Amino acid sequence: MDYSVKVLRDKCIGAASCVAVASKTFKLDSENKAVVLTSTGDKDEDDAILLAAQSCPTAAIEVYDQAGKKIWPL
Ligand code: SF4
Q1: How far, in Å, is the centroid of ligand 1 from the Cα of 38?
Q2: Burial per residue of 47-58, b for 16 or more beta-carbon CB atoms within 10 angstroms, e otherwise
Q3: Measuring CA to CA, how many Å separate 44 from each of 13, 23, 31, 36, 73?
Q4: Whose CA is nearest to atom 1 of ligand 1?
């Protein structure tokens, strides 16, 4: 994963679209809020990560490129 992601916990409503699209990057915790998985094993493609962020109904996922530039939400 070249992109880095951040979940804005206050905005997350637990809709789980991110988990459906990028299950190796996001999961829901016990409070039904998305958290970012930091596994060093299997990873989602950047495209899937961006799509997951774009699928979030509340724009709770921020995506940054390698240079630290925010690429989502625009
Ligand atoms: S898609 Fe958005 S609201 Fe739904 S679980 Fe993921 S971060 Fe939370």
Answers
A1: 17
A2: ebbbbbbbbbee
A3: 22, 8, 24, 12, 19
A4: 56
Q: Range of 47's domain?
A: 4-72
Alpha helices in the chain (DSSP H): 17-21, 46-55
- From 8, 24, 26, 54, mutation site for ligand 1 pocket: most ligand atoms within 8 A of C-beta: 26
Q: What CATH number corresponds to the domain at position 18?
A: 3.30.70.20
Number of structural domains (the chain) is 1
Per-residue pLDDT of 15-64, as tens digits, reads 999 999 999 999 999 999 999 998 777 899 999 999 999 999 999 999 99
Its pTM stands at: 0.93
